[in-house]
Structure of Epoxyqueuosine reductase:
Amino acid sequence: MALSIRDIKSIINETISDYTGNCNIISKWKEPLISVASADDLYFEKLKRIISEKHKNPDELLPGAESVITYFLPFAEEIPKSNEAGRDASLIWARAYIETNRLISIINKNLKKEIEDKGYNAAGPAATDNFSKKDLISYWSHKHVAWIAGLGRFGLHKMLITEAGSAGRIGSLVVDFELPVKARPTQELCLYYKDGSCKECIRNCVFGALEENSFNRQLCYSILKENAAKYNGSADVCGKCTVGVPCAIL
Ligand code: SF4
Ligand code: SF4
């Protein structure tokens, strides 16, 4: 029998617990959220038009794909808090980015092993670096895939807002067995999309990359690279638009 959502949740929780037991890890995460998309969801095909024709369908990553598991690892409150002040990304925020990317790769490895032990298959791109550095187009956008799975809704800051907020990271894994799919949430979680208020993410982007009606991806990426240079090239981060705002932690 294939893994259930309950099994998946427990593998993710055990992996987090083992990982945080490692004395080199300083980041902490709150209860993960999990949501599943059907690999046949018509929105996957639409991503080829919305993002790029190079964006993969689940069955291009895994022949015979049936479901896409997506999960959100919300940062503990001190992590977004640490990044509120100043122009540069905080060291704690940069560490959380690196440590969470590693955690996602271990979670996917552990899930894959358990899935294969049951006679099924799984495949998933890394938490980051799954995009072209030239045009900054992703061939597997975790946040769009997570939207399809109903893990949250987009905010004005172009990030996914989940029921635990938007400060955290998303992982995903394509599998060749069926899992229950939830309906996508219909209520807006972004105050701007709800009633036109807030826009705090735009105020926080002092670099001018994020505006009410536009997003300058190249300018944003240049800020991420500035911070990466500060942190030995290992953390393309900024996140000022996702901290100290009403949707950061819910
Ligand atoms: S900061 Fe406000 S406007 Fe921006 S995404 Fe969050 S809720 Fe929406
Ligand atoms: S990550 Fe930084 S540069 Fe990019 S939109 Fe957010 S605040 Fe602006």
Summary: The chain has one domain: 5-242. The first strand starts at residue 33 and ends at 38. The longest helix spans residues 91-117. The pocket of iron/sulfur cluster (ligand 2) is lined by residues 204-205, 207, 209-210, 220, 223, 238-241 (CB under 6 Å).
